[in-house]
Design brief:
The protein has 217 residues and is an alpha/beta fold. It has a single domain, classed as Glutaconate Coenzyme A-transferase (3-Layer(aba) Sandwich), CATH 3.40.1080. It is 21% helix and 29% strand. The protein contains six helices and twelve strands. The strands form two sheets. Strands 1, 2, 3, 4, 5, 9, 10, 11 and 12 form a nine-stranded mixed β-sheet that branches. α3 links the parallel β3 and β4. The longest helix has 13 residues. The protein starts with a strand and ends with a strand. Keywords: Transferase. It comes from Fervidobacterium gondwanense DSM 13020. This is Acetate CoA/acetoacetate CoA-transferase alpha subunit.
């Protein structure tokens, strides 16, 4: 794990990259890194996230500044700008049931070839997907999701990069830390090694490549 600045962090995000971003309606989202992506105008991104939050928060700031060419999310209901861009054909939106989205990310991190789920069978979710029947029940084959970079938000880490999240701000972050080539984490503080009880660690430092500290530019 290496501690870097926000400017250094966004150098790993190239135009056209696929980026996973943790958070749920902006809770547990690395706002400082997103602000720097907006500042540097790094565009044509494919973003994998739970949602597009709000126009002035989280992933919504990337959408509002037209830095996304595609989002893969479970809903866009709280962001009118995402809806407008989708209807206008300015943004590709792939809507995925939330549980399926989480499992596809997990599958990407675990090296699985996909998952089988009954969710979406017989609906428009089924369109273009392989249907597999097992013991008389139909399932959709959903393919794994992986990314070039994962942007994660944690409450704190130690100098080995072991992460602790803040309650429900955990959400998608641990899954996404498994499913990207480069993992960049924004933390509120860094604490000495040994000060985090092992059973509080949700993401081990071996998965973390770079850390930035909130408020330290």
């Amino acid at each position: 794990m290496k501690i870097i600045s926000f400017d250094e962090a966004v150098e790993y995000i190239k135009p056209g990259s696929t980026v996973m971003i943790g958070g749920f309606l902006g809770v547990g989202t690395p706002e400082g890194i997103i602000d720097k992506v907006v500042e540097k105008k790094i565009g044509e991104l494919t973003v994998i996230a739970n949602d597009t939050a709000f126009e002035d928060r989280g992933v919504g700031k990337l959408v509002k500044n037209k830095l996304c060419k595609k989002v893969i999310v479970s809903h866009i209901g709280t962001n009118p700008e995402t809806q407008r861009q989708m209807i206008a054909g300015e943004l590709e939106v792939e809507l995925v049931p939330q549980g399926t989205l989480a499992e596809r990310v997990r599958a990407g991190g675990a090296g699985l070839g996909g998952i089988l789920t009954p969710t979406g069978v017989g609906t428009i979710v089924e369109n273009g997907k392989q249907v597999i029947e097992i013991e008389g029940k139909k399932y959709l084959l959903e393919l794994p999701l992986k990314a070039d970079v994962a942007l994660i938000k944690a409450k704190k880490c130690d100098y080995y990069g072991n992460l602790v999240y803040n309650l429900t701000a955990t959400n998608f972050n641990p899954l996404m830390a498994l499913a990207a080539e480069i993992v960049i984490v924004e933390v509120e503080e860094i604490v000495p090694v040994g000060s985090i009880p092992p059973d509080e660690v949700k993401t081990p430092g071996v998965l973390v490549d770079y850390v930035v500290v909130s408020g330290v530019k």
